[in-house]
Structure formats: structure tokens, C-alpha cells
């Protein structure tokens, strides 16, 4: 995002957080708000003229907010409408970036709903596991990314796969990703998992191990990495038997390769 859009999103996010923190029945309201914001994004995706008009920086803020009220008043809750009109009053660099901002707000609202229910860690883990499943199920991922298939059909397919296997918030977040991935389907879902960790004050450590880590091993690794990086860590682990032994750890852009395969490769390179 450009600087203006980053500032607009920061303001809109602060408004969302303040609104949800001071409201009764926050679980229901946050879930409803997130769902309704995504419904609005769907409307904007289907109407280019409206999408441009609500983000037209040269138009007065009152005009943009008034247009949002005119179009969506009575169709969404009062809380959602207030958040949308505030977002429209912000200065966004492009309509595309305003749309991205609304998607971010919808995601944050749903994650806050999970947090209010004490399910945020569960949602974080479910989203990460889903990203790994999609990484391994290439046929399913191709179907969900097929540009010739309608968004509704792709969401119905994913819903049938997820039904009864994940929490309601995880399913809602995963379904909204389909049809509007920020990068690609797998990365977008993994990024949502990282966002859930961030809302818990944690940083994700992506760990690839030769054999599955036990819960005590993950806890010990999280504690060790926490001491190294000076912040609480959330371990996202998966198995790759080709490592032969040990682990590869990625935290942000930093990679720690303690695998047997990595050590052998470095040994071979040194010999050559």
C-alpha cells in the first residue's frame, strides 16, 4: 500500500478496535461486522463505478461517506455502517487499496470474534493446517483457483471440504479468501494464520522437521526461540522426511537450518 492508504487503514483499524472493545455482546457483533464488510466488498467487486466513487480522493469526504450511507444504509448493521462511512472518509491512494483495506477490516473483525470466544489460538492452528493441506492437495487448490469457475462455486466446494472440521470463524475466513486472494490462496490463508498469532502478541516460527514434533518439544522450542528473539513465539510445524533429521526454522526472513540434509550439503560444499 502507498503511504496514504497505510494511514487510512491504520485509522480505520483503530476505529474498529475501539468500537468492538466498548460494545456489548462483542462476539456476535464482531462476527456480524466481519461478515457484512465482506458482503460489501463483494458488492464493490461487482460495481466498478461504485468502487471508484467511494474511494475518489478528490471528492469531499462527506460525499464519499454519504454515498456509502445511501447505498448500504438499512442493508448492514448500524455498527458496520458507521465503520464503512468512516473508512470512506479516509483518503485512500487507489480504489484497489481501499478494497484491500476493507478486506483487512473484515478479517480483523472475525478474528476478534474468535478472540472473544477464546478460540483465537484454535483458529490460528486451523488456518495453518489448512494452508498445508492445500499445499499438498494440488488438484483441490487448482479447482479453488480456477478463474473460469464462479466464486460461489469455489466457495461451495471449499465449504463442503471444511464442513464440521473447523470452527465457524476459520470457515468464514477461508471462504472469503477464495476468489480474492491477496497473493495466492495458500499464502493468503497462511498469512491469516500469522495475523491470528500477531493478535495474540506472538510471532510465527515456521518449523519443518524430519519427524513430527511432540507438544513438549514444540513448547520447548517456542521457549528457546522466545529467548533468542525476545518475544513470544507461535510454532507452526510440518514434517519433511527428506531432511533426514533435525529441523529448519524460519522466522520472518531469517532461516536457521539445523537439518541433517542441510549439514550434509554444507559439508559437500566445503569439500568442493
Automatic annotation (TrEMBL):
Top-rank lineage group of the source organism: Bacteria
Keywords: ATP synthesis, Cell membrane, CF(1), Hydrogen ion transport, Ion transport, Membrane, Transport
Molecular function GO labels: proton-transporting ATP synthase activity, rotational mechanism
InterPro entries: ATP_synth_OSCP/delta_N_sf, ATPase_OSCP/d_CS, ATPase_OSCP/dsu
Record-linked PROSITE patterns: ATPASE_DELTA (PS00389)
Main location: membrane
Protein's cellular compartments: Cell membrane; Membrane
Keyword Ubl conjugation: no
Protein family according to the UniProt entry: Belongs to the ATPase delta chain family.
Protein name per its UniProtKB record: ATP synthase subunit delta
UniProt source species: Corynebacterium durum F0235
Gene name per UniProt: atpH
Amino acid at each position: 500500500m502507498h503511504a496514504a492508504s497505510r494511514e487510512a487503514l491504520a485509522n480505520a483499524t483503530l476505529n474498529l478496535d475501539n468500537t468492538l472493545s466498548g460494545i456489548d455482546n462483542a462476539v456476535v457483533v464482531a462476527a456480524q461486522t466481519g461478515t457484512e464488510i465482506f458482503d460489501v466488498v463483494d458488492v464493490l467487486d461487482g460495481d466498478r463505478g461504485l468502487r471508484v466513487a467511494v474511494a475518489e480522493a478528490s471528492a469531499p469526504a462527506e460525499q464519499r461517506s454519504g454515498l456509502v450511507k445511501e447505498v448500504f444504509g438499512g442493508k448492514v448493521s448500524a455498527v458496520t455502517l458507521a465503520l464503512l462511512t468512516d473508512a470512506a472518509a479516509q483518503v485512500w491512494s487507489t480504489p484497489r487499496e481501499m478494497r484491500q483495506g476493507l478486506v483487512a477490516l473484515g478479517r480483523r473483525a472475525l478474528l476478534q470474534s474468535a478472540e472473544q470466544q477464546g478460540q483465537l489460538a484454535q483458529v490460528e492452528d486451523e488456518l495453518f493446517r489448512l494452508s498445508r493441506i492445500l499445499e499438498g492437495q494440488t488438484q483441490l487448490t487448482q479447482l479453488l483457483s480456477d478463474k473460469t469457475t464462479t466464486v460461489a462455486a469455489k466457495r461451495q466446494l471449499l465449504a463442503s471440504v471444511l464442513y464440521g472440521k473447523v470452527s465457524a470463524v476459520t470457515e468464514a475466513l477461508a471462504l472469503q479468501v477464495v476468489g480474492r486472494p491477496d497473493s495466492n490462496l495458500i499464502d493468503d490463508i497462511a498469512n491469516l494464520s500469522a495475523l491470528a498469532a500477531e493478535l495474540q502478541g506472538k510471532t510465527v516460527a515456521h518449523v519443518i522437521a524430519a519427524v513430527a514434533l511432540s507438544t513438549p518439544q514444540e513448547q520447548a522450542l517456542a521457549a528457546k526461540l522466545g529467548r533468542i528473539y525476545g518475544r513470544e513465539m507461535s510454532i507452526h510445524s510440518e514434517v519433511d522426511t527428506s531432511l533426514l533429521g533435525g529441523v529448519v526454522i524460519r522466522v520472518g526472513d531469517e532461516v536457521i537450518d539445523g537439518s541433517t540434509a542441510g549439514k550434509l550439503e554444507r559439508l559437500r560444499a566445503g569439500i568442493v
